[in-house]
Amino acid sequence: MKLSLPLQGYFDLLKHSPGEKKFVCINCGRPVSGLYRQISSTVLKIIDCDKCKKPADKYIEFEVLIILIDLILLSKPAYRHILYNSDCKNLWKIGCILILLEAYCFWTDAFRGITSITYRSHLTDPFLSEKGFYLSTVHFVAGFLLLYGFIYLFTRVLHRSVPKLTGNGKTYPYMLLHGVILASIGKFLFIPIIIWRENSTETGMAIHIVLVLMYFVISLVQIHSVVSDCTRSRSGVIVILAFIVKAYFLTRVSGLLQQFV
């Protein structure tokens, strides 16, 4: 099979020494020693997994667009490919962009249909108005950290078999952090709210926001199931509990931040 490795420059394959089981089969999640074998300078053969007997990672011959489509469709193999077999160095940048996006929506009252919290000052001073954006950013950074922390805590309590190291040799907290960021990519769907906010009703925007948040929760459940190697039902319980407790503590944080408006 002739492969051109089209992911080069997007999600580069991780580099490991020969014989190390630092890759993961995208089908069953078990460690594998490699993803392909080089037949010649231009021909590569995908290695089959010893456990499930399927190609260890079919995505190494797929275009990026196909991988992104599978990510949107919440495909577990696609999640495993990105998290375990790819070197996505810019994932943390995506997380920062998403936090700024949510903070901007919050600051411009785009979320007013589902929450009464606001950091927008009624004064006309542009510096005070800008301060509200920074407070909104702190709000969502705190929310992200609380969500990640409670998911990790509830996973340790309700799913005690979580390994210290994942299939590719990285620590579980590190992979869970990447998983939460990857699940947040669906929040890019908040962009239409910014574009068409003036031509939408509050009810329509509220429905849009709720649908995006539901997609985010489903994505997070799917990714948690992949990273923690547990059933979707248990992942659903852990994620929903984390969201409930996070909302409670974030309300307290918001009350403190509103004192600075």
TrEMBL record:
Q: Where is the protein localized?
A: Endoplasmic reticulum membrane
Q: Which InterPro entries match?
A: Arv1
Regarding the membrane, this protein is recorded as: Multi-pass membrane protein
Q: Name one GO cellular component term.
A: Golgi apparatus
GO BP: any one term:
regulation of plasma membrane sterol distribution
Endoplasmic reticulum recorded as keyword: yes
State which residue ranges cross the membrane.
132-154, 174-195, 207-227, 233-251
Q: Does the keyword Transport apply?
A: yes
- Pfam families this protein is in? Arv1
Q: Which UniProt keywords apply?
A: Endoplasmic reticulum, Lipid metabolism, Lipid transport, Membrane, Transmembrane, Transmembrane helix, Transport
The family classification in the record reads: Belongs to the ARV1 family.
Function, in words? Mediator of sterol homeostasis involved in sterol uptake, trafficking and distribution into membranes.
> Which protein is depicted?
Protein ARV
